[in-house]
Amino acid sequence: MTDIFGVPIAVLLGQLLLGLINGSFYALLSLGLAIIFGMLNVINFAHGAFYMLGGFAAWLLLSSLGLGYWETLVIAPLVVGALGAVVERLFLKRLYRIDHLYSLLLTFGIALMLEGLFRHVFGAAGKPYPIPPSLTGGINLGFMFLPMYRAWVIVASLAVCLATWLAIERTRLGAYLRAATENPSLVQAFGINVPLMLTLTYAFCVGLAGFAGALAAPLYQVSPGMGSSIIIVVFAVVVIGGMGSIGGAIVTALALGVIEGLTKTFYPAASSIAVFVVMVLVILIRPSGLFSREA
Amino acid sequence: MAEAPLLDVKRLEAWYGESHVLHGIDFDVRKGEVVTLIGRNGAGKTTTLRSLVGVVGKRRGACIYKGADLLKVAPHKVARLGIGYVPEERGIFSSLSVLENLLFPPAWQAGGMAVDEIYGLFPNLKGRDSTSGTRLSGGEQQMLAIGRVLRTGADFILLDEPTEGIAPVIIEEIGAALRILKDRGMTIILVEQNLRFAASIADRHYVLDQGKVVDEIPNHALDANMDRLNRYLGV
After folding, report:
1. Alpha-carbon distance A9 to B173, whole Å?
2. Taking 90 as the threshold, does the pLDDT of residue A6 lie above it?
3. pLDDT digits (tens, 9 = 90+) for A213-267
4. Do the beta carbons of residue B67 and residue B222 sit within 8 Å?
5. Which domains does chain A have, with CATH numbers?
6. Chain B partners of A188 at a C-beta cutoff of 8 Å?
7. Chain A residue closest to B93 (CA)?
8. Distance from B219 to chain A by nearest Cα, in Å?
């Protein structure tokens, strides 16, 4: 087998695949963060906690109700989204008119509370979630073995991201959302119920995080800390892509997942900081982010 | 007995945060009329329009429109009563194309104009469909902002300074379009600083000063009252 810089191709491709999978989760999460920031002007620190909730919802639906993977994959995001709607209606909507800092503090507090609550009830240890029978096994690509579930994660998250992007860029509802970002009171004066739209936007984006959590359950273990360990990277992704740029968030997420994978192959010691090095460079060269509209 | 006015504004007060901007505005508009609000900068003309459509936070008084008090109607339901708002800053969305801007507000009432009809009224917009809305000239953006509400079936139009910062040729085109709309039976409130423009279409003028209506002048009596007006406007 050929090597690249002393690394066997199979290992390299394996790491690339891992990077793409991580990137898929980053994409689902950063997409939601970017939309929430763009439309609601809220830096949603609770995003990781909602991701964790999605994982736990999946685990609880399986372990106490015995529901299968596919039902879970639909129900978990709905549950998390509904909770998001409640949070928006009760707390967040009161903070839109004042400084970003307040909503940041609120969502950070919610994240801490949720994580603490789950740690208290379920313990810190991870809960295993089996890979659904229909997605076990894998395909031998000749140069490497591709586990079915991992392929599914990449396809599912890319499909969801693409659908979301299309809905925002190409539909009438998306036009309302984009316009409401620019001038919410005028959109309201045209007869559109902007407060309701913001609630649904938040619920949808948080639901995306729940979907990511349910999708991640069979791959990683479900644990109270799973959200806080991923969310920092996701924030870096959003900063690199440009706050509020939706397409940028998706592309950046996948690219950074791959960069992380490559670093792990060639210089493992740096893999956990690779994303942040990129972030520093981007902030130095293009502070508003790679894909932001204003240069 | 005279017909009840279409809009009857009584003791309207409004605040921006802590500052009290309107101190009891009274005026009425009858169906099919063009009424202007004139006055110096800061007199409260724009705030009056914004209060009607619910863009201002705190309001008091009453604005009875077709029997309902607009101050008690949820902001997103005002447009559904057939009120079309054209804001001072025109409010063209930069993330939407000209056509998307035009098609943006939902049509809440029957009888709205078709896109072709709007292009007939404002030929400058024709053939610009895919241009980004904010790349149009100021005058063209104004036409787009007016055309946009005509599609919704609104028959009561609130126009905030449509001539501000716009070339005289375009002002004439907008004036001609407004006269066509008036002939079609539209009711219009026009906020205007340009007296000549206002006089060319309005039936009556209300003069605002420091958040109050201080005078009402029928259009035919405008010339006779020029001295008084100039004093109000500080010209």
Report:
1. 70
2. no
3. 999 999 988 999 999 989 999 999 999 998 778 888 999 999 999 999 999 888 8
4. no
5. 3-285 (1.10.3470)
6. 54-55, 75-76
7. A179
8. 30
Quote the ipTM score.
0.89
- Gap between the Cα atoms of A156 and B64, Å rounded: 53
pTM: 0.87
- Strand-pair category, A138-140 with A145-147: antiparallel
Selecting from A179, A191, A194 the residue whose C-beta is nearest the C-beta of B93 gives A179
Residue range B26-54, pLDDT digits in tens: 999 999 999 999 999 889 999 999 999 99
What is the C-alpha radius of gyration for chain B, rounded to an integer number of angstroms?
A: 17
Question: How would residue A151 be classed by pLDDT, with cut points 50, 70 and 90?
Answer: very high
Does the beta-carbon distance from A175 to B104 stay under 8 Å?
yes
Chain A contact for B80 (CB, 8 A cutoff): yes
For A25, A71, A189, B204, the CA distances from B10, given in Å and listed in that order, are 57, 58, 21, 18
Please report where in the chains the tokens 């007060």 appear, as a residue.
Answer: B13
**Each residue of B185-208: pLDDT tens digit?**
999 999 998 888 999 999 999 999
How many Cβ pairs within 8 Å bridge chains A and B?
56
Helix (H, G, I), strand (E, B) or coil at B61: strand
| Burial of A262 from C-beta contacts in 10 A (0-12 / 13-18 / 19+) | middle
Return the beta strands (E) in A72-226 as ranges.
138-140, 145-147
Q: Which amino acid is at B78?
A: V
- Single-letter amino acid code for the residue at A248: G
Question: Which of B85, B96, B108 is facing A179, going by the closest CB pair?
Answer: B96
CB B118 within 8 A of CB B125: yes
Q: How many of the other CB atoms lie within 10 Å of CB of B223?
A: 9
A185–B77 CB contact, under 8 Å: no
CATH homologous superfamily of B32-49+76-233 equals P-loop containing nucleotide triphosphate hydrolases (3.40.50.300)
Helix (H, G, I), strand (E, B) or coil at B201: coil
Chain A contact for B99, CB < 8 A?
no
User: Choosing among A98, A171, A186, which should be mutated to test the B contact, i.e. which has the most B CBs within 10 A?
Assistant: A186
| Inter-chain residue contact A192 with B106, CB threshold 8 Å | yes
- Whole-angstrom distance, CA of residue B74 vs CA of residue B60: 14
Q: Which pair of structure tokens corresponds to residue A147?
A: 């586990």
Three-state SS letters, A17-75? HHHHHHHHHHHHHHHHHHHHHHHHCCCCCCHHHHHHHHHHHHHHHHHCCCCCHHHHHHH
Q: Is B104 on the interface with A (CB under 8 A)?
A: yes
Closest Cα to residue A103, out of A116, A91, A118? A91
Query: Tokens for A295?
Result: 């240069």
CB B73 within 8 A of CB B54: yes
Neighbours of B61 (CB within 10 A): 17
